[in-house]
């Protein structure tokens, strides 16, 4: 994965060098690559192989990295650390961090539109899926806005779920769908894999919220306890810690159930769902 | 054009409403719509009609508007006024301006990938063209970075041209190319229209630099004289005002020359080149 990302992103020496350094700094800062793995493994679940889809998988990591860089900006979450390292704007300044985020977002669509052109119809569908999942209506940016506007509001289960379905859920779901579309999945397969992606997404966010309460900043590699201080709407805030843990486990089981028709080919997707719930950072 | 843009962008009341208000605020702030007109008229020059290409034309205005919102941010050009109105971040705050820019960029690709699917191969080419033109390597973001890094550097003709070819030229050129590709232009037609787009782009930037020196803020609708204060590399700074005006006129003539094979069908493109050079704001 990292080799393919390295190939797709301009070199640190390519002019204008500063922005390529900033893009690479955040892209190779130790991300877990969950979205590209979801994409690859969804393709494998459908067709038994994941060759060729790796370029699309990388586009998902580019989108994810752009969103982290912009989220960390002083005007947004104002975070100084991410994955144990200073955030992009702390190292390269705010102007370069804004532009590096813009560039990664743009590059994601460049990469998707420049893949091998055997199935242009699937390619266009993948681009449309990613754009919607990254956008304002039920997508990532929409969730980010709802999250910002939700700070200090009464934490209801409905608001909580709608924020997270959009903010993290939409791209995780799209990761699976892009892989499935690439591999030529039929409507039923796409439906099951989308359902898997939604349950994984919700599990991921519940665990993220739990870790923010339970772990130290050192263990997380980013500032812990920020959610409570910023009066963010979180699962522990709405349901309490014990119930949140039960909910994460329930989502994990539902993710497994959605994979039932795929048999052995979906084993790594099952492992990934387990890993998402059992992770410690 | 504005009716189509209105159709493509979520309503002010669609949740999350704030970001849709911010996107629309900047999108309907009195832009000249030069890029979409270039796209439409390039299609007309090739095929005699411009139906259907309007959606792609709008994508160009979405990209342009995102770039203005981000350029105006305090961390970048720090502009309070644009087209005579307070800039997006002055009205909606920095966080919302960053996200509104991200959302317009994302929506541009959504719009391009969701057009009618008669020619998916052309559609994918158009998406790839736009992504490259908006990107870091010879594209808009690359030009923006070079521009930021060029402040205070010795103003050479080479640096000046390379900045503007990327910063404004790439998207203007892509506007023409997208229209041409949509209309099924052959390689020779695309070459001539690209050349027209390049000359228009350079003319546009030279005139922009001249206006920044000669006009008042009131006439421009934005802060005048900023280039000199920020020690930007401009055409008047490198060549002087008189020579800059001669160069703009030369670019206009070369733009006309590139259109020679298209005859009457390219009349509006000729008028547009004239308008770009003769505008006063």
Could you please describe the fold and organization of this structure?
The first copy, chain A, is mainly α and 281 residues long. Chain A contains 15 helices and two strands. Chain A has a single domain, classed as Farnesyl Diphosphate Synthase (Orthogonal Bundle). Chain A has a two-stranded antiparallel ribbon. Chain A is globular. The two termini of chain A are 21 Å apart. The relative contact order of chain A is 0.13. The model of chain A has no long low-confidence stretch (mean pLDDT 93). At the A-B interface, helix 2, helix 6, helix 7 and helix 8 of A face helix 2, helix 6, helix 7 and helix 8 of B.
The main sheet of chain A orders its strands as 1-2
The largest inter-chain interface, given as chain pair and residues per side, is:
A-B, 53 and 53 residues
Total count of domains of chain A: 1
- CATH homolog superfamily of chain A: Farnesyl Diphosphate Synthase
Rounded to an integer in angstroms, the radius of gyration calculated over CA atoms of chain A is 18 Å
User: Helical residue percent of chain A?
Assistant: over 70%
Overall pLDDT metric of chain A = 93
The CATH architecture term of chain A is: Orthogonal Bundle
Q: How much strand of chain A?
A: under 5%
What's the structural blueprint in terms of helices and strands?
2 copies of one chain form a homodimer.
Chain A: H1 2-8, H2 17-27, H3 34-47, H4 54-72, E1 81-82, E2 85-86, H5 88-92, H6 94-113, H7 120-134, H8 140-150, H9 157-182, H10 187-214, H11 217-220, H12 226-229, H13 235-239, H14 241-258, H15 267-278
Antiparallel strand pairs in A: 1-2
Helix pairs in contact in A: 2-6, 3-4, 3-9, 3-15, 4-6, 4-9, 7-9, 8-9, 9-10, 10-14, 10-15, 14-15
């Amino acid at each position: 994965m990292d080799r393919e990302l390295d190939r797709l992103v301009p070199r640190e020496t390519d002019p204008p060098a500063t922005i390529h350094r900033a893009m690479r700094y955040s892209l190779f800062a130790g991300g877990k690559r969950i979205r590209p793995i979801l994409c690859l493994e969804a393709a494998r679940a459908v067709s038994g192989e994941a060759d060729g889809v790796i370029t699309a998988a990388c586009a998902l990591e580019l989108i994810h990295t752009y969103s982290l860089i912009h989220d960390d900006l002083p005007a947004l979450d104002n975070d100084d650390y991410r994955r144990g390292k200073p955030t992009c704007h702390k190292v390269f300044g705010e102007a370069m961090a804004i532009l590096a985020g813009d560039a990664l977002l743009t590059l994601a669509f460049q990469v998707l539109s420049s893949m091998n052109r055997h199935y242009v119809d699937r390619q266009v569908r993948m681009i449309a899926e990613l754009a919607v999942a990254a956008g304002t209506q039920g997508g990532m940016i929409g969730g980010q806005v709802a999250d910002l506007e939700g700070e200090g509001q009464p934490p209801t289960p409905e608001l909580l779920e709608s924020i997270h379905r959009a903010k993290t859920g939409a791209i995780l779901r799209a990761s699976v769908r892009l892989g499935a579309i690439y591999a030529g999945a039929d409507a039923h397969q796409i439906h099951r894999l989308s359902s898997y992606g939604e349950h994984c997404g919700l599990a991921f966010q519940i665990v993220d919220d739990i870790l923010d309460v339970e772990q130290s900043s050192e263990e997380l590699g980013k500032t812990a306890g920020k959610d409570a201080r910023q009066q963010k709407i979180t699962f522990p805030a709405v349901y309490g810690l014990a119930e949140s843990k039960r909910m994460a486990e329930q989502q994990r089981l539902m993710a497994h159930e959605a994979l039932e028709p795929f048999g052995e080919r979906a084993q790594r997707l099952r492992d990934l769902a387990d890993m998402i719930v059992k992770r410690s950072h």
